[in-house]
Amino acid sequence: MRAIYATDLSAASEAAIHNETCLECLERIGVEEIHLVTVIPSNMHAGMPGMNFEERREEGLNRYERVMQDAGFSTDTHVVRGTPHRRINGIADAERADLTIVGSRGQSPLANRVLGSTARNLSRTTVVPLLVNRIEREADDPDVLREHLFQRVLYATDFSENADRAFNAFSYLRHATQEATLVHVESPKEPDNDTDATDQLATLEGRLDQWDIDTDTQVRYGDPAEEILEAEAEVTPTTILLGSRGQSRLRRLLIGSVSETIIAQASSNVYMVPPPRTA
């Protein structure tokens, strides 16, 4: 597998990249090649006093590259200019990446920090599965909140085609997963489903049992985002796994807002699987 690792060279990024357990989890799910990417925003200019952006960021990426190589990954680095989420998506597409990784501290009074806004924008537009690695929010010397990335997975499903695509990620996540909680939320805004949700979850549970993953199921009732976050608080997963139905405005209104809310507010890492690439 090939991963894009997006970093702004902040203390939060430093914590994630230097966490050996996180890197071991990526190796277990099959990541062999990592492209380190940092984006200089368009509004930062080389002529600004004391700002040699390219040189400073290349030095930072070179430090990270040595960490990745020492951990056994094949690596490459990219220092680019532009809008962060667009350039990250462009590199992921060009390199035919299997996933994109970005660190985020989640919601805070400074909600528009570059990294936080990038994670939010990637959740809307990513062309490959997106792993949001959660970092401590207020600490001066931050660390990752859930270093065993895929040990305990909370999988949220609405039984859609793309939720099924997200579930299929267990085919490789299982190498690092010990426990899973499968959650479906019955929403009053959604039409009734003729198939019983409990039966559908039991079928998925049976598939995970074959991989010796200790599995529990929940059918909840209410607002999907709120119920998924409540389930997270109860079971404290290391990662929430879910799908996104796409990028159109209508789809975002229906379901994209759920994945965006989870990425913004969850304490756990989030692994979001988007629809297939268009030709």
From TrEMBL:
- Its domain of life reads Archaea
Residue ranges constituting the UspA domain according to the UniProt record: 3-132, 150-274
Query: Which InterPro entries would you find in this protein's record?
Result: Rossmann-like_a/b/a_fold (IPR014729), Universal_stress_UspA (IPR006015), UspA (IPR006016)
Family annotation (Pfam families): Usp (PF00582)
The UniProt entry, under CDD domains, shows: USP-like (cd00293)
Family statement drawn from the similarity comment of this UniProt entry: Belongs to the universal stress protein A family.
Query: Which named protein is this?
Result: Universal stress protein
Q: Which organism is it from?
A: Halonotius aquaticus
